[in-house]
Design a protein that fits this description.
Blueprint (H helix, E strand, L loop, with lengths): L1 H17 L3 H20 L6 H15 L2 E9 L5 E8 L10 E3 L3 H9 L3 E3 L21 E8 L2 E11 L7 H60 L8 H31 L7 E4 L1 H11 L1 H6 L3 E6 L6 E4 H18 L5 E9 L3 E8 L33 H11 L3 E6 L5 E8 L2 H15 L1
Parallel strand pairs: 8-10
Antiparallel strand pairs: 1-2, 1-6, 2-3, 4-5, 5-6, 7-9, 10-11, 11-13, 12-13
Helix pairs in contact: 1-2, 1-5, 2-3, 2-5, 3-5, 5-6, 6-10, 7-9, 9-10
């Protein structure tokens, strides 16, 4: 929809330029091409400051403007403030605020209409609040609209080469204003999302610390009592203390899971990537689960293709993925069942890891839910399960941080197979994708 609208606006601009005299026509096409390049380059970043800087520098250069500013609407929607500017003293920027309907910027924001003032001295519509005249020569002010809502303005003031702005300048900038507004709005939303994510991580971090500290003290106290430091205990007392310690350990795990998912979603987890022997890591992880599997009389096996390559990744994070998948397989596979883990290269630049069990399985209509946060499919397990339902959500986040994919194939009553597909080197894959994208363009 947005692409079609942009193409329509572009065609209208070309038609308008074609009607100009040869000199204006040449200038108009040059402006249009360079501003079109600007609209494409904006997609290279979602950072608000970087997008605004790209826009304002390009417009100032192309329009030969002495001053360009971008004003954004405040949260209440009643006042505009300068977010970024060139040609304006930095000390003035924090004070440059305008109410709706006040002055040139306020009039444009309130009306939603662009304004071209070729010669301010000849236009008596706008004066300062004290009644004095504007000291500038020429203005071009464009509203930035998203779905008919004005989110800000672009102010272009005074042509450095002399002379005022004209209808061609207005037509070209106005034609691209909507796409620029969408780019700015996307960056604003991205910024707000990041703020919320950071606030959530900060809150959970503090809450986790406040919870873990007393839990650690309680656990140590229970352990001292359990070990008979304060006197001998009977069997019932020991049993209840063991149960209490297990509950404390479970609470600590839940707190750690909450912190992990919050940090992963907030992209606040440092990744320590290196080329690693993933097959050896999986083998070591599988071996650590053998006592647990034997206790439940499960057959646990692992095989890897001899040509399985080294993988560029974070060893601790990938071990966490394997641990979670095997732990779930053991949890949901009944006594005497089978769990098998396979690893093999795929398509030359990928590896595929499969964790298969003969457990209770998952109905097809609920398989997508297993990767959702706080989702537990307890009803399909014969044994009682504990936790917040964050394990597979954490696994999915880690896999995606490695530019990989995860999915499940399962049938109720017939077991499940979880698949993890990882690039051998995510850096090379990204370069290939960027190259293909450039060729397509």
């Amino acid at each position: 929809m947005e692409e079609t609208q942009f193409q329509t606006q572009l065609q209208q601009l070309v038609d308008d330029i074609e009607k100009q005299d040869p000199q204006q026509k040449q200038r108009g096409m040059q402006l249009l091409i360079r501003l079109y390049d600007l609209s494409k380059s904006l997609h290279m970043t979602l950072d608000l400051d970087e997008r605004l800087k790209l826009i304002i520098q390009k417009i100032a250069s192309l329009m030969h403007a002495q001053r360009v500013s971008i004003m954004l609407m405040d949260r209440r929607g009643g006042e505009l403030y300068v977010r970024i500017a060139v040609g304006m003293p930095e000390a003035i920027i924090p004070q440059a605020k305008v109410k709706l309907g006040e002055g040139i910027a306020g009039w444009v924001a309130a009306s939603g209409k662009p304004l071209l003032v070729k010669d301010i001295k000849e236009d008596k519509r706008f004066v300062y609040r004290d009644g004095s005249a504007y000291k500038d020569d020429s203005f071009l002010v464009l509203p930035l609209r998203v779905q008919d809502k004005v989110i800000g303005l672009i102010n272009v003031t005074n042509r450095s080469s002399g002379g005022g702005f004209n209808e061609l300048d207005q037509s070209i900038l106005e034609g691209l204003a909507d796409s620029l507004a969408i780019a700015i709005d996307q960056a604003l939303r991205y910024q707000e999302t990041n703020k919320i994510a950071k606030a959530k991580v900060d809150f959970i971090t503090v809450a986790s610390h406040e919870l873990r500290t007393p839990l650690t003290v309680i656990k140590e106290t229970v352990s001292l009592v359990r070990d008979g430091i304060f006197g001998s205990l009977n069997e019932m007392q020991i049993r209840y203390l063991d149960r209490t310690k297990n509950h404390i350990d479970r609470l600590v795990r839940l707190v750690n899971e909450l912190l992990s998912i919050a940090r992963l979603e907030g992209h606040q987890v440092p990744m320590q990537r290196t080329y690693l022997d993933l097959a050896a890591l999986i083998r070591g992880t599988v071996e650590s689960f053998i006592p647990q599997a034997e206790k439940k009389e499960l057959r646990l096996s692992f095989d890897a293709d001899l040509s399985f390559p080294k993988v560029w990744g974070d060893s601790d994070k990938l071990i966490q993925v394997i641990v979670n998948l095997i732990s779930n397989a053991i949890k949901f596979t009944p006594k005497g069942g089978i769990i098998s883990i396979h690893a093999r290269p795929e398509d030359g630049s990928w590896v595929l890891i499969q964790v298969q069990d003969s457990g209770c399985g998952i109905p097809k209509n609920r398989q997508k839910e297993v990767f959702d946060r706080f989702k537990q499919l307890k009803s399909f397990a014969k044994e009682k399960t504990e936790g917040l339902g964050l394990g597979l959500a954490i696994v999915k986040e880690i896999v995606e941080l490695h530019s990989g994919q995860i999915w499940v194939q399962s049938e109720a009553g017939k077991g499940s197979a979880f698949f993890v597909r990882l690039p051998i080197d995510a850096r090379a894959n990204r370069k290939n994708e960027e190259g293909a994208k450039k060729r397509d363009e």
